[in-house]
Specification:
With about 350 residues, the chain is an all-alpha fold. It is about 70% helix and about 5% strand. It has a domain of about 250 residues. Helix 1 runs antiparallel to helix 2.
Length: about 350
């Protein structure tokens, strides 16, 4: 099994490395690149074709993982794998089109819903969870009846997909940040799957980890390529793998706790200011830190340290209630940091 893990990681890493180098040249040649100025404060014209290497590397390594995976007793596993890849094609195509043509928000939302719908139709959905107060497992179709229960399954699963995709997308504002946090989430998910004996699907987060490791060679500050629409694609993959890994949503919510809390904070603040929740600004935590003079590497290192620490907590044999308390504390700390930064006078923007 160790050889399979190495081969899947190496396959993803090498392909990501090669395709990222290609995507840098292709993005500049085709004009799919971000010029300096605006919210992004980079110093040079930078390709934003990050979706291309992520898709090529992960799809190749994930397909290899199916050939190397040990036998599984789960009869639905092949169906879920097909749904993961089919949905990823839709999300990746939409990401590439958005990078090229700057699609309007409603069109992007339709594409996200389509990708989520394909995954859900292939049994990648949240059907059950553990009640943190009673420690009893709640199976939605059994607890609430067939019609209402399956309606809740669809609504909850769709919310999870859209939430994860847009959280990662909004996190992509500092060189290497979204990919680094995604790598931590992949590593934590792999550890969870492995210790739970889910060896066949544990190769999927390894494929994503190798993909992000190869991509980060060029995406770390000063970045030669941005994720662009690839951030949505990365969020989709994390959402799928989290459910395939036993619907351990609390695990990923903890690892991604700070970015998720940041998104929630921004939505509330924008609504209070009578602005669209989808409007763009520099109010996100990582952008506020950049405007206070923090460099991209310092911001990324801080996020990685926090995410890894919270991931360690998520892997501990704690009760569901303890993990709920940890999630609440994470959100409270993020809200406090954002509130404190909001109260400070505006800083002179720094080059990242």
């Amino acid at each position: 099994m160790a050889a399979s893990l190495f081969l899947v990681f190496a396959c993803a890493f090498v392909i990501a490395l090669g395709f990222t180098a290609l995507a840098i040249r292709l993005g500049l040649a085709l004009g799919i690149a971000d010029a300096p100025g605006g919210r992004r404060r980079h110093a040079r014209l930078t390709s934003r074709l990050g979706a291309l290497p992520l898709f090529a590397a992960f799809t190749s390594a994930a397909t290899l993982s199916r050939l190397l995976a040990p036998p599984s007793l789960d009869p639905v596993e092949p169906q879920r794998f097909n749904g993961l890849l089919l949905g990823s094609v839709v999300v990746c195509l939409a990401a590439l089109l958005d990078d090229r043509f700057n699609l309007p928000a409603p069109t992007q939302l339709v594409a996200q819903l389509a990708g989520a719908g394909i995954a859900i139709a292939h049994a990648i959905f949240i059907e059950r969870f553990t009640d943190p107060l009673t420690r009893q497992q709640v199976v939605l179709p059994l607890t609430f009846g067939a019609v209402l229960g399956w309606g809740l399954v669809f609504a909850l699963s769709t919310f999870w997909f859209l939430g994860m995709m847009n959280t990662v997308n909004l996190l992509d504002g500092v060189d290497g940040l979204a990919a680094s946090v995604g790598a931590v989430a992949s590593a934590v998910t792999f550890i969870h799957m492995w210790r739970e004996g889910q060896h066949s699907v544990a190769l999927l987060p390894v494929a994503l980890l190798g993909t992000l490791a190869g991509f980060l060679i060029f995406n770390t500050a000063p970045a030669r390529i941005f994720l662009g629409g690839g951030a949505l694609y990365l969020g989709y993959l994390l959402a799928c793998i989290g459910i395939i890994g036993g619907a351990k949503i609390a695990l990923l919510v903890l690892v991604m706790g700070v970015p998720i809390a940041d998104v929630a904070w921004q939505i509330v603040q924008r609504v209070r200011a009578r602005r669209s929740p989808l409007s763009a600004d520099r109010g996100h935590l990582h952008l506020r830190l950049a405007d206070r003079g923090w460099g991209a590497r310092r911001i990324t290192a801080t996020y990685v340290l926090v995410s890894a620490s919270l991931g360690t907590v998520a892997l501990l044999p704690l009760s569901p209630l303890s993990k709920l308390i940890a999630i609440s504390a994470t959100f409270a700390a993020a809200f406090a940091a954002l509130s404190a930064l909001s109260a400070l006078p505006t800083a002179t923007p720094q080059q990242r």
